Amino acid sequence: MCETTAGPGDVTASLPKPAPGEAVDPIRLEPVDEVEIVTLVDNVFDALLTGDERTLRPGRGAGMVAAPQFEGGRTPAGMIAEHGFSALVRVRRGDRVTALLFDTGLSPGAMVTNAGRLGIALDDLHGVVLSHGHFDHAGGLAGLAGARGVRSLPMVVHPEVWTRRRIAVPGSPADELPTLSKRALNGEGFEVVERRVPSLLVDGSVLITGEVDRTTGFERGMPPPHQAWTGTGWVHDPTVIDDQALVVHVRGRGLVVLTGCGHAGAVNIVRHARRLTGVERLHALVGGLHLGGPAFEPVIAPTVAALTELAPDLVVPGHCTGWRAQHALAAALPSAWVPGGSGTTHRLTAGAA
Question: Which residue stretches belong to region Disordered (predicted)?
Fold first, then answer.
């Protein structure tokens, strides 16, 4: 179990280190003894879901709040669910544990509130990783800054995370999305580190993929209404090029891949992680897979087929995966698919030597 936390002196070890070679070259990813992924924010919360030896649920009693209409004046509030994603990742090697925050959810308060209801302190974080710049993954940065105060905290991002974007559906007014401010984040104590290529964190045991190679023929990205500002005009932005994933190698099990939205495509991301690390086995895939809605439903079948061939031990699709893809994955991978949700913890431990 992840019970020992790393000390303040370990922050330096959590800073990104340039991974050797280009993004397509092999990287030595140090195996870990355990990785624990706590979903702090997801689109759903179901207090009736049951867990097992690797999946822990918060249950109906989570988050007691004041409620004067009840005898005793309190009631369980459960976890906040919203259209966003955030996960706390704890990595253990031996007796040393390092905690990283991967994305922060949609609203300023949901992530911090849910962490509090789970009894998780966010003041011992060693770094933040943003999967990409969309606001439903970065909105909780304000709440995190408020909870921690202005203290230095490394944050790993892709250089295009600051891109202005909008949704311009023909016949409707264009809707510009909130854009991250580097100046504001620096002022709040985040030590922003920008990298396009892979980064190794936590003494080489956590990989941030950087830009993902797009190798499949079916994962084509966002539809034409998703646009980016070039400085002179708006253009179709299919790739969301700042999309990146977090990868850990659990000793004796294989790769654990954590995605925010998976804009690069779930299969592209897994292929990229395998190619970078030289580790063929996919142990777990957790996070948003962006297969919801009419523009992405044609991608479901080939994605499910490719993931079925990879035969992961655990698949926890969340956030923007969509209900049709959830059903398809559950049918194709019944022993691996597990429903996620705010407050759920997935604990993955090393295999026998």
Answer: 1-24
Q: What does the alpha-carbon distance between residue 173 and residue 162 come to, in Å, rounded to a whole number?
A: 23
Q: What is the pTM of this model?
A: 0.92
The backbone torsions φ and ψ at residue 236, rounded to the nearest 5 degrees and listed phi first, read -55, 130
pLDDT in tens, 283-294: 999 999 999 999
Could you give the C-alpha distances from 8 to 127, 151, 338, in angstroms and in order?
A: 11, 12, 35
**Helix runs in the chain, H state only:** 11-14, 110-117, 135-138, 141-148, 182-187, 266-277, 300-310, 323-332
- Quick: pLDDT tens for 54-112: 999 997 778 888 999 999 999 998 999 999 999 999 999 999 999 999 999 999 999 99
CA dihedral (43, 257, 260, 300) positive or negative:
negative
How many Cβ atoms sit within 10 Å of the Cβ of residue 1? 10
Helix axis angle for 323-332 and 300-310, nearest 10°, is 30
Q: Is 14 helix (H, G, I), strand (E, B) or coil?
A: helix
Contact 271, 290 (CB under 8 A): no
What residue ranges do the domains of the chain occupy?
A: 30-59+76-349
CATH superfamily for domain 30-59+76-349: Ribonuclease Z/Hydroxyacylglutathione hydrolase-like (3.60.15.10)
248 forms beta bridges with 256
- Where do the DSSP E strands lie in 216-300? 226-229, 234-236, 246-250, 254-259, 282-288
Give the pLDDT score at 13. 43
Angstrom CA distances, 278 to 46, 216, 223, 305, stand at 37, 19, 32, 22
Q: What is the dihedral angle through the alpha carbons of 133, 137, 143, 149, rounded to the nearest 10 degrees? A: -50
Characterize the bridge pairing of strands 17-18 and 234-236. Answer: unpaired
Contact present, 60 and 77 (Cβ < 8 Å)? no
Q: What SS3 state is found at 153? A: strand
